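hi! just following up on the protien thing from before. the input was this:
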Amino acid sequence: MINFFPPEAKLAQLRGLVQVFKANHKTHYAPHEVYPNQITVFPASEQFWSEQFWDNPAMGWDKVSSEPVETYSVPGDHITMMTEPHVRVLAEKLRACLDKAQADDERK
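and the predicted 3d structure came back as:
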């Protein structure tokens, strides 16, 4: 099992996290316009949400982007991808994307 909570986590922190999970569960994001730039998505390799995304690596973001969607799979699931050791992979991929975007901007 992944150590999701640090040993020093307080009950108030855990309650706060539960509230975030509840709020996220109630939220449904639906953009109303097409984004004019490229979107980059970091899907978790262990998907536990709706099967509608399993055949679409862009997870539906391709429908709201005018550019092709870049996807970079990250180990873990939607929650554990943000914990050690998976978060290191996410950070490396995110850093590479940010470096690339900055280099692209400098060329313009």
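The longest strand covers residues 40-41.
Strands lie at 40-41, 70-71.
cheers
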